[in-house]
Specification:
The protein is 41% helix and 18% strand. It is globular, with a radius of gyration of 12 Å.
Length: 103
Amino acid sequence: MIDISRELQVVANTGRLTMGIKQSIKAILNGDAKLVIMAANVPPSIKQDVERYAKLSQVPIFTYAGTSWELGGALRRSHKIAVVAIIDPGESSIMSLAGGGNV
């Protein structure tokens, strides 16, 4: 089993990611995003938008089991983060979540 919090830290240190709804959707539409991670408590309207754009761009989505506060904490931020787009996984193995996510 992969430790998602640890892998997010590895991506933050060795790769590239973008945080936030607008920035993540922009990364999806530009074709930069390789994986999208959404918190479990994302509002339905935002979830639908992100899922629609991800499906059109064929970007896998993984639903983080925690809340947006917990996702922010996993990235060592003191604020909520609802959506994260992985642009470059760096040295992490976070892309293994792409097969187990839901699109």
